[in-house]
Specification:
ten-stranded mixed β-sheet; two-stranded antiparallel ribbon; binds 3-isopropylmalic acid; single chain; globular; 358 residues; 21% strand; binds magnesium ion; alpha/beta
């Protein structure tokens, strides 16, 4: 029995719809296992721009820093798309939170549920009944945070973004990946573009170096173009994929769709301690906001990751995962994962269905 403080950021678009379901599930686990979850709401993203004029208010950062974990829905939408880069909700809120909170490691498990194997766009003879890949994405470095701006070039005013990595940043994400692999199938695929990029050559050599600390783990290197192809050609060859911020952004979306729907995949963003930020990997889907049709399972599964990684509540994490599996096994679906013409239920009802199984 414990007390845990959670900062809750609903964000924009479908953010409030899905977070509400995840909060329900959190409370249900609290009742069932006798924990107290104190949840404090905070504003970020477009909602914060509208309310107080900035995507990441100082109070929000404070609320997060004073919590044990952060649960986040999604941010951004067309309403704020015309703001200059640094004022946009995605950059201001998401990248701001990651940087301010030191969340350098982004874990994105791409797990295909048996019940959803027919939702995968990959042929059954390739994908089989299950898939379990863990993408480990570096989250506070690389081109996202490198020097950027405009300057006069030979053909006029040009824009630039710099990809940069230090050995320290590579080493710490490498260890996260190798540690994870030790608890899984002991294989790490490091993805880079070492045939072209200097930063990738450093990345590759540091991966080799850290691999020496993990003699049991097999390390392989793939160029990112090949990795993107291998993911659809033979996804089962992967166990842990470790890569830079931008390559991880791209490959994790690809991996998610292979499992059936981007609406299913959770993520954890971790720093040095147990503190973490948990969010679905999908975006704010403004076109379906407030319509009670979004799939809340990615956010609900993010709660499961929060229990496991930030609170060390392994049984509780499993209870959430198992509840989701049972719901899917019963054929209960939201629109995005329903087969053509099959019945489906709304966001709210999906949240209730998961709670009922806990
Ligand atoms: C993600 C998102 C963000 C990213 C965007 C919204 C800034 O795509 O979390 O994957 O690129 O990191
Ligand atoms: Mg992304």
């Amino acid at each position: 029995m414990g007390t845990y403080n959670i900062a809750v950021i609903k964000g924009d678009g479908i953010g409030p719809d899905i977070v509400e379901q995840a909060v329900k599930v959190t409370k249900k686990i609290g009742e069932r296992f006798g924990h107290k979850f104190n949840m404090t709401e905070a504003l970020a993203g477009g909602a914060a721009i509208d309310a107080v004029g900035t995507a990441l208010p100082k109070e929000t950062v404070e609320v997060c820093k004073n919590s044990d974990a952060v649960l986040l829905g999604a941010v951004g939408g067309p309403k704020w798309d015309n703001l200059p880069g640094e004022l946009r909700p995605e950059r201001g809120a998401l990248l701001g939170l990651r940087k301010e909170l030191g969340l350098f490691a982004n874990l994105r498990p791409a797990i295909m549920h048996r019940a959803l194997s027919n939702a995968s766009p990959i042929k059954h003879e390739i994908i089989g009944d299950s898939l379990d890949i863990l993408a480990v994405r570096e989250l506070t470095g690389g081109i996202y945070f490198g020097d950027k701006g405009y300057r006069e070039g030979a053909y006029g005013r040009e824009a630039y973004d710099v990809e940069r990595y230090s050995p320290f940043e590579i080493d710490r994400i490498a260890r996260i990946a190798f540690d994870a692999a030790m608890k899984r199938n002991k294989k790490v695929t490091s993805v880079d573009k070492a045939n072209v990029l200097e930063s990738s050559r450093l990345w590759r050599s540091r991966m080799e170096e850290i691999a020496k600390e993990y003699p049991e783990v097999e390390l392989e290197h793939l160029y990112v173009d090949n990795a993107a192809m291998q993911l659809v050609r033979n996804p089962k060859q992967f166990d842990v994929i470790v890569t830079s911020n931008m390559f991880g952004d791209i490959l994790s979306d690809e991996a998610s769709q292979i499992t059936g729907s981007i609406g299913m995949l959770p993520s954890a963003s971790l720093g040095e301690g147990s503190f973490g930020l948990y969010e679905p990997i999908h975006g704010s889907a403004p076109d379906i906001a407030g319509m009670n049709i979004a799939n809340p399972l990615a956010t609900i599964l993010s709660v499961s990751m929060m229990f496991k990684y930030s609170f060390g509540l392994v049984k509780e994490a499993k209870a959430v995962e198992d509840a989701v599996t049972r719901v899917l096994d019963k054929g209960i679906r939201t629109a995005d994962i329903a087969s053509d013409g099959a019945e489906y239920i709304g966001t709210d009802a999906m949240g209730d269905a998961v709670c009922a199984e806990i």
